[in-house]
Amino acid sequence: MKYIINGTKNDTKKSIKFKGTAKELLEKLGLNEQIVIIKRNGEIITELDKISDKDTVEIQKVILGG
To answer: Are strands 56-61 and 2-6 parallel, antiparallel or unpaired?
Structure first.
């Protein structure tokens, strides 16, 4: 699968072999599920949705503050 992490100093684009839930992917990447929005093939998903090797995942970090 391909994944993109936006909202970092240098946006990250990589490909890895992965099959599991979005939550498991975030754990594998060391990301906090509470501060990101996850898109699978352009659609927002929850941390319980499944991801496969054929998917493209975009992880958008949410900016908090006032």
So the answer is: parallel
Residue 9 has pLDDT above 70, yes or no: no
- Kindly report the pTM of this predicted structure: 0.83
3-state secondary structure of 44: strand
Residues 6 or more apart whose CB falls under 8 angstroms from that of 10 comprise none
The CATH number for 2-61, chosen from 3.20.20.70, 3.40.50.10800, 3.10.20.30, 3.30.70.20, is: 3.10.20.30
Task: Tell me how far apart the alpha carbons of residues 36 and 3 are, in angstroms, rounded to a whole number.
Answer: 13
Query: What token pair was written down for 14?
Result: 């990589």
